[in-house]
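The authors assume throughout that readers already know how a fold can be written as C-alpha cells. For illustration, here is how one protein appears when written out as sequence plus C-alpha cells.
>
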Amino acid sequence: METSSWLGLLAVLITTIGTVLGTWLGRTKTTVQEIPAEGVDPAPAQPEGTWTVSPEMYRWFQDQMASMHGRIRTLEDAEAEARTRADRTDRLLGLALDHISQQDARLTAAGMPLVPMDPELVAARDAR
C-alpha cells in the first residue's frame, strides 16, 4: 500500500475517533439543569369587605417573592454557565478549524491533500 493511502486512512481514523470522543464528552459533561418549580402555596384567607392585608397574607407574599427571586437567581446562574460553555466551545471549534487549515496547507504543499472538508466547515473556517 502506498504511503499516501495510509496517511489518508490515518486522517479518517483520527477524525472519527475525535468525533466520537467529542460527542461522548459533550454528552457526559453537560447536564440539564433541573430547576425546582414547586406549586404555589394557596394564599391565606382574607376577611371579606376590607382593604387591609392580614399579617398572614403579608408573610405569604414575602415567602412567595423570596422563592421567586431564588428561582430567578438559579436560572440566571444556569444561563451564565451555558453562555460560558458556548463561548468556550466556539473558541475550541475555531482553534480546531485553524489547525485543520494548517494541516491541509502542509499536506497540500507536500502533494497529499486531505479529504475535502464539508462545505459548512469550509464556510465556518473562511468566516473566521
